[in-house]
Write a structure and sequence with these properties.
Elements: H1 2-15, E1 23-27, H2 32-43, E2 48-53, H3 58-64, E3 68-71, H4 77-80, E4 96-99, H5 111-115
Parallel strand pairs: 1-2, 1-4, 2-3
Helix pairs in contact: 1-2
Amino acid sequence: MYVTYMTTLQSLRDYGRLCKDDRVLVIGASGGCGTAAIQLAKALGAREIVGVCSGKNEEFVKSLGATDVIDYTKQTIRDYCLDKSGNIDPALQFDVIYDAATNSGAGEDYRDMSMELLK
C-alpha cells in the first residue's frame, strides 16, 4: 500500500503539479491506485475530482471524495466535457489527469482521448 500512495503522490504533486483548487480527472477511480489518487487529490486541495468507474462503484468513489463520476459504460470522458454544440468546453477541461486504467490489462486506452481534455 505504501508504494501505491507514494507513486500516486509523486504523480499528482511532482509530475502533475497539482495545486489547490485544481480540477482533477481520475481514470480507474475504483481500483487501488485510483482510490489513492482521489484521497490524495482531496488532501492536496483539489476543487473538483471526477472519477471514472462503472456505475456500480459510483457511491464508493464518491465516498472517497470524488465530486462527480463518469460511468464509462454509459459515457466517454470526452462526451462528459462537451458543450451543447459538440465542442470541448474549456470550463470542463482538467488541470490534472491521473490514468490508472490505460494498459492495465483489460484493453482500455484513454491516452489520446484524455490529452485533449487537459487545460
